[in-house]
């Protein structure tokens, strides 16, 4: 598939169950999404995300309100952080890590500096994002403002990388406000339905999370598997992406799409070839 633009939606703090090394991070029993759904009860529904395959990620252990879709339209799986540092920014760095011929840099800057491809980052202040010197950073303080910017950028016929890191879910998870977390997820779901109608056939949408934070545990953040969903309107028939061993697979996929040399699989392995 000849993608010209990649849109990454980072649902920061959304985990989908304890990771294989959860014991090393005091995260045994962590399940951010599962616990939010269980605490909200039978009214918990995310129809757009479920149609994309969010429930299918947990087909063997279904989440309340998110049964596996019979015919998911997204490519779905789960992904984990490989970093020994489990922080709110370590996953973000890992996601976009890239080894250039001379130094370790980022996919965000590399596709601009080496290839002239536009990168736009929509987020509240994050030092890592602000330090991407080649990218355009659009500061926002709420998810409503962020989604407004995202829709404006998506309908414009531009190529490149478009990244949006949501804020509502992570703020409510951090404070233990389950009702707020549910509202934040439902807002995402509503905007996703609109976003999917706005996509061009040459767009690839990637939905993931750079870290997890289960408010029912005392540790922050929690070590969990993270959702991975890829969607393109040119191939609305989903398949399983399995378990990805590092968030850097996302950066490797973006790099391959825009022509970066990603032969060093120790950084990440692209899943572009699986989107067929």
TrEMBL record:
Its EC number is 5.4.2.7. One of its GO terms (molecular function) is phosphopentomutase activity. Keywords: Isomerase, Manganese, Metal-binding. InterPro entries: Alkaline_phosphatase_core_sf (IPR017850), DeoB (IPR010045), Metalloenzyme (IPR006124). Pfam families: Metalloenzyme. Residues 6-261 form the Metalloenzyme domain. It is an enzyme of class 5 (isomerase). Gene3D superfamilies: Alkaline Phosphatase, subunit A. It comes from the Bacteria. GO terms for cellular component: cytosol. GO terms for biological process: metabolic compound salvage; nucleotide metabolic process. Belongs to the phosphopentomutase family. This is Phosphopentomutase.
């Amino acid at each position: 598939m000849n993608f010209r633009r990649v849109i990454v939606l980072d649902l920061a703090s959304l985990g989908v169950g304890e990771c294989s090394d959860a014991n090393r991070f005091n995260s045994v029993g962590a399940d951010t999404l599962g616990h939010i759904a269980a605490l909200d009860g039978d009214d918990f529904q995310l129809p757009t995300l479920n149609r994309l395959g969010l429930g299918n990620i947990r087909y063997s252990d279904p989440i309340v309100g998110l049964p596996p879709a019979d015919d998911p339209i997204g490519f779905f799986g789960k992904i984990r952080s490989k970093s020994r540092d489990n922080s709110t920014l370590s996953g973000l760095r890992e996601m976009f890590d890239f080894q250039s011929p001379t130094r370790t840099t980022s996919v965000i800057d590399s596709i601009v500096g080496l290839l002239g491809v536009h990168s736009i980052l929509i987020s509240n202040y994050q030092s890592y994002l602000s330090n991407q010197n080649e990218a355009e950073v659009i500061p926002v303080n709420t998810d409503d403002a962020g989604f407004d910017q995202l829709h404006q950028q998506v309908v414009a016929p531009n190529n490149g990388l478009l990244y949006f890191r949501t804020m509502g879910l992570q703020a409510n998870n951090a404070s233990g406000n389950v009702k707020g977390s549910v509202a934040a997820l439902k807002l995402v779901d509503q905007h996703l339905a609109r976003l999917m109608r706005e996509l061009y056939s040459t767009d690839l949408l990637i939905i993931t999370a750079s870290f997890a934070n289960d408010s029912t545990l005392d540790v922050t953040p929690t070590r969990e598997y993270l959702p991975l969903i890829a969607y393109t309107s040119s191939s609305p028939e989903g398949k399983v992406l399995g378990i990805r061993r590092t968030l850097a697979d996302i950066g490797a996929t973006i790099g391959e799409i825009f022509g970066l040399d990603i032969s060093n699989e120790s950084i990440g392995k692209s899943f572009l070839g699986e989107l067929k």
